[in-house]
Amino acid sequence: MSTKDQTLNIGDALPEMRLPPVDRTMLAIFAGASGDLNPIHIDIDFARRAGMPDVFAHGMLGMAWLGRLLTQWAPQSKLRRFDVRFMAITHLGNRPVLTGKVVEKLEQGGEPLARVQVEMRNQYGELKIQGEALVALN
Length: 138
Description:
Blueprint: E1 17-18, H1 24-34, H2 44-49, H3 59-73, E2 79-86, E3 97-108, E4 111-121, E5 127-136
Antiparallel strand pairs: 1-3, 2-5, 3-4, 4-5
Pfam families: MaoC_dehydratas (PF01575)
Protein name: Dehydratase
Domain MaoC-like: 21-106
């Protein structure tokens, strides 16, 4: 996106991002990088004692992927707000599919902005995370 581009329209889609399946290595690397060492994401025995069939992805890993979707579309310096709601667990083997679309053009404090809805689903179309961002247009 060129943030000076006045041709941005409501309904415009961000380029879809498809990621490889979630696996144990990915979760271990994210745990180490983020400092989120909650064993439910990396220790199968702990996850089973908690009533889960296996470990599962950190919610913040999915949020990070959505952030990447946004910053591949517009520079990080243009991001004014980014919120998400975690809707369902992302299990091992899920292949994240990230999408977004412009839902509103507005102005706040004299700054032109785009409100962008983002979602992360798995390969079966199951909604895992939904969110919204405000992105500066100039």
